[in-house]
Amino acid sequence: MPGVGGWGGTFLLISDLNNSDNTFLVVQPDEDDPVWFASVAVLDEGGYEIVRRDTARNEHEVTTASSVNDIARDLTIWMAARDFPGRPTRQVSEF
Fold first, then answer.
1. Which side of the chain, N or C, has fewer Cβ within a 10 Å radius?
2. What pLDDT does 1 receive?
3. End-to-end alpha-carbon separation of the chain, Å?
4. CB crowding 49-71: b at 16 or more within 10 Å, else e
5. pLDDT computed for residue 6 by the predictor
6. How far is it, in rounded angstroms, from Cα 3 to Cα 13?
7. DSSP 59
8. Taking each helix axis from N to C terminus, what angle separates 68-80 and 6-15, rounded to the nearest 10 degrees?
9. For the whole model, what pTM was predicted?
10. What span, in angstroms and rounded, lies between the C-alpha atoms of 5 and 2?
């Protein structure tokens, strides 16, 4: 999903979800076989289901939440730690 724009873009995308015609969103790298994704879906009883999956790190988490602000913040932090095609990998140096 190019151009999501960090927390603000994620917040707007989640805020636009509804129970009728825009019930979920998925964010993943733009590649044929992405190793990670995150999704947010509107729940019938209110709130949202959040799924985070990263096969490279053997992570799969399903949670529920009601605060769009909290979901956007948490997903922005989580996605920032993922690998993106074309983005240089981070190197940690010990001094």
1. C
2. 42
3. 37
4. ebebbbeeeeeeeeeeeeebeeb
5. 80
6. 11
7. E
8. 140
9. 0.81
10. 8
What would the two tokens of residue 59 be?
Answer: 């992570």
What is the spatial distance between Cα 95 and Cα 10, in angstroms, rounded to a whole number?
A: 36
Q: Decide if pLDDT at 35 tops 50.
A: yes
The one-character DSSP state at 67 is -
Is residue 77 within 8 A of residue 94, CB to CB? The reply is no
What tokens were used for 62?
């399903």
- Determine the Cα–Cα distance for residues 85 and 35; give it in Å rounded to an integer: 11
- The mean pLDDT of 32-53, rounded to a whole number, is 95
pLDDT value for 83: 75
- pLDDT mean over 7-23: 92
